């Protein structure tokens, strides 16, 4: 069995971060989201992985390498434009051959991994197995309709009027029969070859399509709110570890990780939180669910429920919450200027100005 990991896509919902960085490499608890998926694939006993890459191919390849650090053999499959999930399967046809495979969206996060799902698929080997989870607003997802027996009878991509609240999770398991289906579909109104249409083709031709409704945690980390929520979830499981320096005037409370080379000076860190290697927190407060990447500086500031990417500084700005701060960012106070009112008043005006 192989794995096909999708790491193309523009990541428009994470702009401006993704103007200069691949969305799959934005860190959660100081580790790129993509790495969690690769680790889950390796843990499931799959070693051959094809990674579909687009405009950010060089950055993805530099971060992932040949896959050996994950125990994987990586093959990179270029996709000129993000033309849909079914298109990714189409261009990976030669590499996939006649093997079964799991397709994993590189910016998705599934707590607990996929080992049990892969083992179940190997044992029962339906033509396709999809993962579903209940969401509050399914209009932003592929949506499944089930019959009374719990069998999949229909799929829709981002419907205006969803027939259920069951959204497709970004993990799919297929036999080679899917190749016939992706060749049969035509571009949607979005101009993409939709994997939902390909799976619907399997359903219409009476293929064995099964589903698993997962009750555990899943997130598509395509926007800032979900990225912060995934960061919170991962940090809840960290084990406290102080490999850097924490001076006697500082305090760490709860699950706090201070990486090697990091320094905490006259500050208070309340976990779960991670301070990356080489970073300095001085005369500051870092609160729960915060990840500070490597070589950052936090001085005379407060930070909570946030992600700070590498080589950034936050100096003297009071309190920051629920924020995603990119690489090489400088956050400083605005200069003080005298307050003034600028007026253009007509004849016989009356104006009251609060002093």
Helical stretch count? 8
Classified in CATH, the superfamily of the largest domain is: Spore Coat Polysaccharide Biosynthesis Protein SpsA, Chain A
β-sheet strand percentage = 25-35%
Q: What is the CATH architecture descriptor of the largest domain?
A: Alpha-Beta Complex
Radius of gyration over all CA atoms, rounded: 24 Å
Percent of residues in helices comes to 10-25%
How many beta strands in the DSSP annotation? 28
Stated plainly, the CATH topology of the largest domain is called Spore Coat Polysaccharide Biosynthesis Protein SpsA, Chain A
For the biggest sheet, the summary is: 9 strands, parallel
Distance between the termini: 73 Å
Are there runs of 5+ residues with pLDDT below 50, and where? 14-19
Q: Based on Cα principal axes, name the global outline.
A: globular
